[in-house]
Each structure stands twice: as C-alpha cells, then as structure tokens.
Amino acid sequence: MSYRLLRPLRVLASAAVLAANLVTLPAAAQPAGVTRTDLQRHDLSAPGHEAVQVRVDLAPGAAFGRHTHPGEEIIYVLAGAIEYDVEGKPPVTLKAGDVLFVPAGTVHAAKNVGNDTASELATYIVEKDKALLTLAK
C-alpha cells in the first residue's frame, strides 16, 4: 500500500472511532428515567474548547449517578426539585429558577426528589474531543 494512502486511512479510521463514541456514549451513560436532549454545541474563542447545552429531564425518583465532565458545568433548574450531591459539599436540593456551578472534573450526582418530572438546562464549557461525561467509580 502506498504511503500516500496511509495518512487518509488513519484520519478516516480516527473519525469513525470518534463518531462511534459520540453515538454510543450517551445511551450507555443514560440511566432509566433520565432523558438528555442535546440542544446546541459550538466552538469557543478559547482554543480547543466548546460550549454544549443539554436539557436533562428526570422522572420522579430517577437519579443520574456519580460522574464528571472535562470542563465546567453550569446548571439552571427549569422544573421540579433536584438534589445535587457535589463532592466536597453537603447535598443541596434546588427548585425551578435555582442555579449550580460544578467545577471541571468534580464528581457529582443528581436525583429527582419531587413527585413530578424535574428538568435542568446544563451548559458545559469543555475541552473538545473528550467524552462529555465520564461515570465515576
């Protein structure tokens, strides 16, 4: 095989692996009763970073287990009551209109503690080409 073809083949293979990760990660990391809806994703003026906005809906009693993000998460609660457990801080229950800031790499979890569906708008300022969410051990 020609060396001129190796580079394009490596680029295509890398793109295929990245696409597969983007398609499979959200489903694998999404517990029952939790719906994540991607709203927008844009490059930032800071090199290698992007902003991502996601709506997260949690059915009554549903929880999203301990996880981290490769950048900051800014949360705005749209509806319901959500208990957030952020490592190093006592748990806090937030309601519609409340906000929360989660520093990059900080382990945290969320649980709907109300009787109705709870929703949040999550805005991530993250490094590009990294998994948006990593489950904690």
Automatic annotation (TrEMBL):
Keyword Signal: yes
Keyword set includes Protease: no
Alphabetical UniProt keywords: Signal
A Pfam match: Cupin_2
InterPro entries given in the database record: Cupin_2, RmlC-like_jellyroll, RmlC_Cupin_sf
Chain ranges of the Cupin type-2 domain: 55-120
Signal peptide location: 1-29
Domain of life of the native organism: Bacteria
Stored PANTHER family: CUPIN DOMAIN PROTEIN (AFU_ORTHOLOGUE AFUA_3G13620)
Protein name (database record): Cupin domain-containing protein
Species, as recorded: Bradyrhizobium xenonodulans
